[in-house]
């Protein structure tokens, strides 16, 4: 896919990678201000990659992927602009909208996903959802229903992402892991992962990047597909008259 990208797209890929590396380094060094600023810039840079790497008409998958990246950006940015008490709910709200946008983007590809091709693979996704809700239930209290809804939409996104191929399947699974880590930290009292912020952001950026790469790859493949050959009809080329019949 790399050779098919424009110079602008390659530049934005480089910008996104640098931002990810700087952000992860800031997470590891507890440089809060640098971590916040770079986090606010991640999704706009990734959206720029998608825009410059795809061509008009971009279609449903690309358009709704850009919507999902937009809501993800709001989920990264807005919590820092509101009070600490509301920050978590605001973040979850925007990321729920991002997951819904991904579901809308990938839904037309459901027949290519494991839902139709390998239904047995739905069992691990279902197991993850049940386990996540069970772990979060004691600490979620009144938020248990919203947590279950968010978990269901998140797993639906990961399942439908398999319709774009292996890259998107891995991206959806890694994104699922990222949000699961956030839920575990928020609702499971005994959860204590060293470097929690680092691992959340690593899986978040990798998951989003792989999903974007799969969407771009599909768009490029569609543009490079050969045009269907027109079917000849009698209107285009009248039949050659039969001389024998004409003589009779």
TrEMBL record:
Keywords: Membrane, Transmembrane, Transmembrane helix
PANTHER family linked: GH04784P
Location of this chain's protein in the cell: Membrane
Membrane spanning residue stretches: 38-54, 61-82, 88-110, 122-140, 146-165, 172-191, 197-216
Protein name stated in the entry: Membrane protein YhhN
Family affiliation: Belongs to the TMEM86 family.
Domain of life of the organism encoding this protein: Bacteria
